[in-house]
Amino acid sequence: RGSGSWGLNSYFFLTFTGNAETLKHEPKKSNTDIYSRLRDFWQHYYSAHYMNLVVQSKETLDTLEKWVKEIFSQIPNNGLPKPNFGHLTQPFDTPEFYKLYRVVPIRNVHSLSIAWGLPPQERHYRVKPLHYISWLVGHEGKGSVLSFLRKKFWALALYGGNGETGFEQNSTYSILSISVTLTDEGYEHFYEVAHVVFQYLKMLQKRGPDKRVWEEIQKIEANEFYFQDQADPVDYVESLCENIHIFCKEDFLTGDQLLLEYKPEIIADVLNQLCPVRANLVLLSAASKRKCHLKERWFGTQYSVEDIDKYWRDLWASDFPLNQDLHLPEENKYIATDFSLKASDCPDTEHPVRILSTHHGCVWYKKDNKFKIPKAYIRFHLISPLIQQSAKSVVLFETFVNILSHNLAEPAYEADVAQLEYKVVSGEHGLVIRVKGFNHKLPLLFQLIIDQLSDFSFTPAIFEMITEQLKKTYFNILIKPEMLAKDVRSLILEHGKWSMIDRYRRLMKGLDTESLSAFVKGFKSHLYVEGLVQGNFTSRESKDFLNYVVLKLQFLPLPHPCPVQFRVVDLPNTHLLCKVKTLNKGDANSEVTVYYQSGARSLREYTLMELLVIHMEEPCFNFLRTKQTLGPVCFITVETPYSLLVIYRYLSLFSSSIIVVN
């Protein structure tokens, strides 16, 4: 009604899954009336004194007050006392929690999850002890758990923390979990991986909370808070509604983001509870299939439950030695401190303009004079004709980019946690480098990436680890109907496209380190570099980014002009049908893509196509999903690079084939 956003929150949640067995047959056997139980629940908890209301609007306060009274005054208030769960201080206090669970996933992946059930930590929101601990455990720089595991070739990634949702943090308990993505070798040494995590936690316990680290996290979070983008009004009022349930009045706006008080005794108390004997271990891997003789009732997931191995149980119960390679991170040099706005050194423009063009490349530039924030975005595309010469060259290029990302993980992590984002991407025709964030320290991050590219090196062990992971990545893409459909559609439409099947088959034949070294040398020898710099930089500073790339890489210009990067097949004016059988025989889902080719269009016509999509979304969703119940996902989109209009329909339990209609 009117212009505004409303957030009404009563702060309780229900389970999101059920079926005829759980909602009808089993209750009937036990003489349970589900309708009466649900109505009783509603009458007890649907009460105004449980609820908070937040309204955001440009209307006047008098108008908003009138609307609120008119719309919400009839919500009943039963006056019943609110339940109190303060007596539940020991969550998951059961022997079944302190076990090793092996689980067989659908995807080809190895992962180890370690979790602790803790007393509720919501009341410590001003200190945020779980945030402090997870920030250190999840660190990827020198001295971190992941840095050590990567050097052992046991892990690819590590994630730790508390989701701060109702399922992970509430008034009865909090959960701290650490998840490690393992290599094949890491899976064989998963107990050793867990031991490294426990050694790091023991080091934190012995050292105690570190004020310098806490204040560093506080500064990073404050920078993000004060320069955050405006949130969607619907999301913002919903977030505030939840905050009102948890925080003191003065912290409604900041309590979920800022670190407000340093209290080392609270952090130490939580740290001391993170001991091995209180942990739950979940090992996720298809390699465990022979050991998993149990089956989960509703989803049929294979799993097993066993005691922790005696050797490790005894070791973890003792005063085991620390690992000298594990230590706190060094001071972060990427945290921005200069937030001044730079004066323009050239005329302002509405769109990016090319400010530098040489045989080596060009730079496009746009000064931010609209949002006026101390941030910038940099994108560079290093274009090479070598990439699309064969399926082998595509695989070598993706291996090269994955190793580059691996090499960057540790030195660039400090920048990442300081709210400087970076991405190196294997594009169709070149290496794409993207960095964004506070402009003060952004050049340092860009130079680090170019330096790593210039000095690129790898060991046979890293090569083996990355290629094995790439096999899993290709496989996991191919078993998803929606991804396979997209790949087949691109293969039909794009000139010179190498399909995922081509790449997977070539990778499975095997690659050698000599081939990769030769490819990288050839790639870096001849390039055309195109860059875009937007935000709080001057035009002179923007030119320096290209100059740095040319200086460090010492490449030659391409012998021929930069090729057209996207060539799309002009489809005949007739209906075409392509059917592809899914590669995952156990997946009953299907994908239907209806593709309409529009051809090259003007900006106005592209905009009209976008409006058409918006107009079509609701009736398509209503007919295909709501009325026909054909599947859980249905959406429409415009693919502007190809000048296409695409309709996706995701069918559930329909057939084992994928259909692409052109």
Decide which structural class fits the backbone.
alpha+beta
Please give the largest β-sheet.
7 strands, mixed
Which strand order spans the largest sheet, edge to edge or round the barrel?
Answer: 5-6-4-7-3-9-8
Query: Quick one: how many beta strands?
Result: 21
What radius of gyration results from the CA coordinates?
Answer: 28 Å
Helical stretch tally: 20
Low-confidence stretches: 10-15, 641-645, 649-662
Report mean pLDDT, rounded to a whole number. Answer: 89
Binned, the helix content reads 25-40%
Strand content: 15-25%
Distance from first to last alpha carbon:
41 Å
From the spread of the alpha carbons, the general shape counts as globular
Domain Peptidase M16 C-terminal: 35-219, 512-648
Family: Belongs to the peptidase M16 family.
Protein name: Nardilysin convertase
GO biological process, one term: proteolysis
Brief rundown of the structure:
By secondary structure, this protein is α+β, with helices and mostly antiparallel strands. The protein contains 20 helices and 21 strands. A hairpin with a 3-residue loop joins strand 13 (421-426) and strand 14.
